Amino acid sequence: MTFETLPYWLVNVPKASRPSQCPDFLVNANVKDRRILSTPDEQYHRQTWPEVQHIIKTNRIDLFQRVPSDLRRYLGYNAKLKKEYGSVMNFVVKKRLRWTDLTPKSPIPFSEPDDIKILYNDWPYGIDAKIVHLVVWTKFDLEDDPATDDLTPKARRDIDDFVDRTFCSKLPSENVIWFKNWRSLKSIHAVEHFHVMLYDPDMAFVKEITHGDVPMSEKVQ
Fold it and tell me: 0.70 exceeded by the pTM?
């Protein structure tokens, strides 16, 4: 069969490794994921830095997607985590953040270093390889406006200030951008976080700011 006739759950799978039926973790894949999974990796277009900037500035973060084979690995790994830890959130808190207490030390956002942790995005989007995708995890809430499903102006200012002093002091501001998933798009609930993307940063700085973190996508085969 050519890739045009292969079901979505067999595309990008070496012929010798193809399962005889759809894996459980792909049975209920949504329409968007099925479309991505049906695309051969070699036909996938990695989003450029200008495209990434446009997506974020126009608040169309639903347009981000993963390389098809990476999406398959991501969905399979998340299914494994849910079986082992009960939820992806439990895994993140216990194994990635290693936080035993989610109570913030300070009521003032970004004022207490222990209330913040910067890590790699474990399963980054299919973007230019020069773009480093980080996640800033916080023990404090970043207030959403229920009417818009978006951040309040104050929360946005707080994040802007943090990003400016943390990242823009090391990179040109045009090489730094951040976004926070709409509540409806979050893959991990209950632990507050937002995303920061850096274009072509000094990797020594990235190693320093993440304390030598390595994304799970590079650890899991």
Answer: yes
Summarize pLDDT for 76-95 with one digit per residue, the tens: 999 999 999 999 999 999 99
Q: Measure the CA–CA gap between 160 and 99, rounded to whole angstroms.
A: 25
Going by C-beta distance under 8 Å and a sequence separation of 6 or more, which residues neighbour residue 220?
A: 73, 77
- In 70-104, which positions are buried (b, 16+ CB within 10 angstroms) versus exposed (e)? bbbbbbebbeebeeeeeebbebbbeebbebeeeeb
Q: Which of 102, 128, 126 is nearest to 116 (CA)?
A: 102
CA gap 182, 186 in Å, rounded: 6
Q: Contact, 196 vs 168, CB < 8 A?
A: no
What is the Cα–Cα distance from 162 to 160, expressed in whole angstroms?
6
Cα 80 off chain centre by:
18
Q: What is the DSSP letter of 92?
A: I
